[in-house]
Amino acid sequence: MLSRPDVVECPQCLGEARRRIATPHLARADSTAMALHDATRATADRPAVVTAPPPPPRRQKFTTNPLHRKLPRP
Ligand SMILES: [Zn+2]
């Protein structure tokens, strides 16, 4: 890495091309994909904390009328 030149000759215009330090295209990634990556990494070892258990399933309604017991069952 120390032996790299600071200035090289441009292969197209034969001009002086100086060495520049640039980011490795981090901002060019799809934002939706990056958000999914971040969310997956964030919850990989620390799942989301909930404040309450999920609501119970809806109970089936039933009647207390004794005459309904004589009705045919499905
Ligand atoms: Zn050039």
How do the helices and strands line up, and which of them pair or pack?
Blueprint: E1 7-9, E2 16-18, H1 31-42
Antiparallel strand pairs: 1-2
Task: Give an overview in words.
The chain starts with 6 loop residues before the first strand and ends in a 32-residue tail after the last helix. The chain has 74 residues and is α+β, with helices and mostly antiparallel strands. The protein has a two-stranded antiparallel sheet. The protein is built from 1 helix and 2 strands, in the order ββα. The structure holds zinc ion. Zinc ion binds next to loops.
The poorly predicted ranges are none
| Biggest beta sheet summary | 2 strands, antiparallel
What is the radius of gyration computed over CA atoms, rounded to a whole number of angstroms?
Answer: 34 Å
The helix-strand sequence is EEH
List keywords for this structure.
two-stranded antiparallel sheet, 74 residues, single chain, alpha+beta, binds zinc ion
Produce a short descriptive summary.
With 74 residues, the chain is an alpha+beta fold. Helices cover 16% and strands 8% of the residues.
